[in-house]
User: What shape does this take?
Amino acid sequence: MSRKLDVYMHDVMVGCLEQTGSGDLSFTYDADYLKAAAYGISLSMPLQKEALKGVQVKAFFSGLLPEESVRDRLAKYLGLSEKNPFALLEAVGGDCAGALALYPHDEQPPVASNDVEVLNDKRLLEVLELIKRRPMLAGDDGYRLSLAGAQDKVAVGFKDGHVLLIKGGAPTTHILKPMIERVKDSAHNELFCMKLAKMVGLDVPEASLHFVNGTPYYLVERYDRQIGEDGEITRIHQEDFCQALGIAADIKYEREGGPTIAACQDVIAKHAVRPAADQIKLLNMVLFNYLVGNADAHGKNFSLLYKGKKPELAPAYDLLSTAIYPELSEKMAMKIGGKYKPRDAYLRHFHRLVPDTKVAQSAMNRQIKTMVEKMMDAAPTLKVSLVKDGVVSDVFGEIITVMEQRAQRLIE
Assistant: This one.
């Protein structure tokens, strides 16, 4: 017997996700949506009357869910199989990354209500601990939100210095992350990298570090949300590059068959509204991740945003220097010029990311020189500024040391 979930975008039904008795998934676009649609829900799932089947359907919808240990704990808490994305989305798919929401077939989606819980310090501390045991607060009445990624997090609102739990289906505006266990000052690390990225001109959402009774937590604005002048919050559809390429989240690393930098650039070239600008933007992200030592910049950590008929490269996110933690793998998620290990990547390897012409390679040289100079100038200033604001951590200096070492490899 098959089971179905209706898939909505911006409160408009776009199609139906179906699971057969054998567990296979298919997706069929709604006939009315096909008549008016500007784009499909994924580049890997083009608009068509016939049902879409196969790996790209599972890859896309499974990609709306958390990964690795977070997904395992979510499934165990809900009493479901971590290998059954349909059942998990049935439980938590009411508000996914971007603008999609999934509801039981033929049931009218609930009207969004302003059911908001303002968290006092005691309740916030409880939530910070709770999401480690109950990912995304799954199972809480009225709270059906799903976020991709391998880190504990929860979608929230934030107003007047207070964290808000939004349970009534209204859009959230921020993502909250507690400290990662056994990873020193992870919140400080991500804050430093995100603020540094903004200082050197990368497109990144606003990030901040907060403390409740001495316990830190990290907050970042959702780039897949738009707030109008009247305060109305609108969801923006998005998909990551694994979803766009029809690649399952569990093979998100290039060495396992995941996206390559070239494949991401090809997607941008073929589909982006501003392909040349977004290709440069992606290269700047790759450069930044290399210099700060973020080896975990895989295909799910780059995304496309659908603000119009064609997508654009989303702002950078999940920027974290993994290189300062010796227990984490040094291999980069995507090869640079054929090299996985940062110590093997030099200027000539970055040249392989662009066409083999003097013009392209000269442009790459200028891009690298500019990025290195900006980062080396901004990082010490940022460290001093954070310390003045009372945000202190050894990881700041450790990240700067990584940057200095890697910058030397790019100067030939």
